[in-house]
Amino acid sequence: MDWSKDLKPAASANGAEILAQERQRSQINVDRLSHHLFGSAYLERQQRILRILQREKIFSKANQANLSRPDRYFLGLARGKRMRQLMDEHTWNDDDLLMAEYLIDDLQPYHLHMSLFAAAMREQCSEEQRRYWQPKIESWEIIGAYAQTELGHGSNVRGIELEARWDPSTKEFVLHSPTLTASKWWNGTLGRTATHSVVVAQLMLSERNAQGVMEERSVGPRPFIVQVRDKATHQPLDGIIVGDIGPKYGYAPMDNAYMLFCNHRIPHSALLSRYASLDPDTGIYTRPKSSSSVYGQLTRGRSVIVMNARLVIARAVTVAVRYLAIRRQFRDQDSTDPASVETPVLDYSTVQIRILPLLATAFALHYSGSAMRELYERTRSSSTLDGDNAQLAELHSTSAGLKSLATELAANSVETCRRAMGGHGFGGGTGLIQLNNDYLSKPTVEGDNWMITQQVARYLIKKVKERAEAPGADAVSRTEQNLQNFWNDRHTQPCFAVLENDADIVKAFNWRASCMAVKAYEAREVQKRPWNSLLVDLHKLSKAYSQAMLVATFFDTLQAGVGLDQSTSTVLRSLFHLFSFHTIDTEAREFQSSGAVGTEVLDQLPAKVLMLMEEIRPHAVRLVDSFALPDYLLDR
Amino acid sequence: MDWSKDLKPAASANGAEILAQERQRSQINVDRLSHHLFGSAYLERQQRILRILQREKIFSKANQANLSRPDRYFLGLARGKRMRQLMDEHTWNDDDLLMAEYLIDDLQPYHLHMSLFAAAMREQCSEEQRRYWQPKIESWEIIGAYAQTELGHGSNVRGIELEARWDPSTKEFVLHSPTLTASKWWNGTLGRTATHSVVVAQLMLSERNAQGVMEERSVGPRPFIVQVRDKATHQPLDGIIVGDIGPKYGYAPMDNAYMLFCNHRIPHSALLSRYASLDPDTGIYTRPKSSSSVYGQLTRGRSVIVMNARLVIARAVTVAVRYLAIRRQFRDQDSTDPASVETPVLDYSTVQIRILPLLATAFALHYSGSAMRELYERTRSSSTLDGDNAQLAELHSTSAGLKSLATELAANSVETCRRAMGGHGFGGGTGLIQLNNDYLSKPTVEGDNWMITQQVARYLIKKVKERAEAPGADAVSRTEQNLQNFWNDRHTQPCFAVLENDADIVKAFNWRASCMAVKAYEAREVQKRPWNSLLVDLHKLSKAYSQAMLVATFFDTLQAGVGLDQSTSTVLRSLFHLFSFHTIDTEAREFQSSGAVGTEVLDQLPAKVLMLMEEIRPHAVRLVDSFALPDYLLDR
């Protein structure tokens, strides 16, 4: 009956054949490049976990996009439970579990229990608290969430309104939401799932003021462990209102929460007291000391964000490159052969200009993310490497810029690839819809992309100030060296030979960033201009500095030798050029006005970019193959 | 029991009070500005239809985002039916119906019946066919769709594969899909709802070739009216496979279709034969003549796209401005007053730079869209205005650029506003999620944004060629005049005084576009470079030309006088400046290298943009109020 089963695609549109031809056009050794990018442990893990997950029907993505939001939540619970069972059956370690979550590619309601809640408890519990809670957390006897953000305050944590008032008479804390805006908001896993939560509240203490009068004030936001729901009934405890905030952009299976407290009492032991504690008998409060270990943790966290961003770009580009290589539309306008076939869409320069620089970006982010991770590993295993520690301290101050740039590039990449695929890009067949909806939170969370760039700028202004006040001082870190180079020659226009010399590319990026740093310093420290009036320039400065980091790391990696065959290395070099020249072309005015690159060179860049794209084009399919993304993940 | 009901927002976060204060800061007469923008007929219609819809529970958006895709479809059917009933009850005309669809803000499965199907039948039917079909269409006795796009071909309509073969023995056409890629694809209303469809297929005729041998060939794609489903059972007719293509980016209630034919026979009368016909007895085919009325239709259609784009931006900006005016986060870093309150987020320059140029863009698009519509109306009511007709002909060739630019700006605006709102931007409370998901098809449909810009470039290259070949010829249209101005002075660098003189702003935009047109001409016509190697530059040319159109129309409107009070006119002038300077700043390299604007002026632009945003900031809430978007539409 179903005669459509015998139909074949038009002769010119046989996907498998076309991809086979594409792969024949390139000499890249995909397997070797994959190992270079990911290492064998990662690739082995991906295969091993994939085999297990593919057998489990509950993780099938086939009908997911048709479900209602409540059904997505229930499916999420079932998936979470099954994943936990698999973890026990196969004795998965943390990396295995992360890989499983990545391949399942659907946030589970238990996610915050495993991630933020567990991490916060590990970090904030006293030894005694940890002994009590850790087994319950590991066995999922309790399910925890992390409640910090409120309706009224997200970025500004110090502004949160929930109060935890110490009552010395009963030796309890009283949690109270004085306003509607004090409502906890956005807290994942808490809307329906969690039994417990870390709750961040202003710790309110009464102390005698200078006049000897008792005065209540906050000593700052502190974390408490709070039971939220009854273990038997799963109903909220008295004095707690908690629920799901409803639909949001992505994360359909996640129960993001609102939560309010009305004079809800929690015991003294609820205050997580590794860093700060309150003596229950004397009421004396011991303030937290800042911990230096946070440097490494933050750098590690930011490297994960960058590596994740490069995988998101890799995924969008993989889907786009394969489809656009197969898809043909219109005969070449200049062709005089009436029998000529239609042009593969990936051959159009207007399509290449959107896809191939992104392909190069995935590599650029990869090398920077790797370098950050390696630096973190080195400093963790040894505390004697002073150079590394100086670099880590600097990275701590500047990695906010990389977070901002990487998540911005990745979030935009999905939509760029989607649009480049034309009509079919709008369809569910791309596998990109949920990826986009879920990933679009990333430019906001873990530091809003436009806000946190101030950190980078503040650090750079400080570094320029040091230089201006002591021009002869030793330049230790790379940034100091770059700033010194610029400072010494700042009245020249070096116009680096970026087209001839790769080291000059790095110099040009550093020069432009240094120039912008000095301008920011002058505006703030010399002209004393208001901080708010500088924010747009500071954001641009952070971007310029982060782009320079990406280019420098990419260049360093290529110079150190990537241990790959000649033809693959040549293509990697082309990707480095494409990323660099496309970025310079996009930001041409900044390179020009800083004197980093001259007008004649800038005028040549668009043609150079076209040439590079033509060079890379035959390797596009093999390059995305090397990202080793399983079809299972691509949702095919 | 629910003690949370009595809670108030924190004192500094009372939305209604803050908005009232915001409105007190500005003298703009919102009502007058609304009437200036929309006219009283539109505003009256919006109020009238709104009152009717608000009473209808079925149009409530409250739970929409929680539903499954099948339930969204069923809800869509019910809504469509109710809308049709309301149309009959209130004797709505076409404009009323469009307003109702706009306010309901959820595409209904019947949408294509009312729009594309009805329009195609109106346009393509012979008189006899129209008499037969029109009553059935108007009464919804049949529900129609429009099936042109195929799995293998969208943009390139001439490449579609479905065949309609004339069988002279039975005087029927035989519809047949020879391949899988010949499957109709994306066709709205057809997946589950429609009984009929206009089906576009290659009309295959057998004709004697030069050697006298009968040869079958396509005379091109032609439209047929085809019954798809049985009226009683709603099952597809024999020889037709049709169904829903499944989830896609937005348009949850819409049943986009795939459809295949296996030697399915349709009568001779199925060929829509207003423009082309086949004599059933002789088999002689009469080819279509190109119709000049299509100029006006296309211009009208493009003006609708531009006006729709400006409403999408207006909506995103309205939500963002109101929220960001209320939302406060962080105290001013430079404040020494410890009691200072947190800063409204809209006061941060990094937020303003994302929102306020978009606010200006909504006005710029508005005036261009209006001008297009008025031109269309003028030429329709009178055919004697030669100047208007010349302008219309030019607009026909260049409006593709406006479609591309306007939908790109609008599609990006929603995401820009969403991100500027930080965490809450990710939430469903913005009312922007569905708007974004639905609107994201617009950069692709009705001419892919990167593809159709070739039309503009082709037209401009032709115009430059005429100029180069006859430099003394009369320059009739505006474009010809601009090109002539540039051509005559092309070896100079005029460096227009854009900061001093508004007319110079328009000149600078025209100069830059003309310069790029001449470069494109030289590359193509003089250096004979391949078309594909120029596509990126041609896209930039179209963008530059379209931006010049927006700026020129905005300027003309202000010069002609907008009939508003002085303070409102002053703010409109600031919006014109903001749109112009922000665009010049963003595209600075092109203005610089064409010699349209000098480096010193370009260097002043960022500060000038900051100043303009400070000027506009107090008026932001009243400006978005003037868009007159009902809370009902904003999904509050």
Give a brief description.
The structure is a homodimer of 636-residue chains. Chain A is of the alpha+beta class and 636 residues long. The first copy, chain A, has helices at 15-24, 30-54, 69-89, 94-104, 111-124, 127-138, 293-326, 349-381, 386-420, 422-425, 433-439, 453-469, 478-488, 502-526, 531-560, 566-586, 588-593, 599-616, 620-625, 631-634; strands at residues 144-147, 163-167, 172-176, 184-187, 196-208, 214-227, 240-244, 257-261, 264-267, 277-278, 285-286.
The number of domains of chain A is 3
Estimate percent helicity of chain A: 40-55%
Classify the secondary structure makeup of chain A into a structural class.
alpha+beta
Strand content of the residues of chain A, in percent?
5-15%
The CATH architecture category of the largest domain in chain A equals Up-down Bundle
The value of Rg of chain A in angstroms is 27 Å
Count the DSSP helices of chain A.
Answer: 20
Query: Which two protein chains have the largest interface (Cβ within 8 Å of the partner's Cβ), and how many residues from each?
Result: A-B, 92 and 92 residues
Oligomer: homodimer
State the end-to-end distance of chain A: 27 Å
What global shape of chain A is seen? globular
Q: Low-confidence runs of chain A (pLDDT<50, min 5 residues)?
A: none
CATH topology of the largest domain in chain A: Butyryl-CoA Dehydrogenase, subunit A, domain 3
User: In the CATH hierarchy, what is the class of the largest domain in chain A?
Assistant: Mainly Alpha
The CATH homologous superfamily of the largest domain in chain A is termed Butyryl-CoA Dehydrogenase, subunit A, domain 3
Give the number of DSSP strands of chain A.
Answer: 11
What is the average of the pLDDT values of chain A?
94
Subcellular location (chains A, B): Peroxisome
Binding site for FAD (chains A, B): 149, 188
Domain Acyl-CoA oxidase C-alpha1 (chains A, B): 295-461
Main location (chains A, B): other
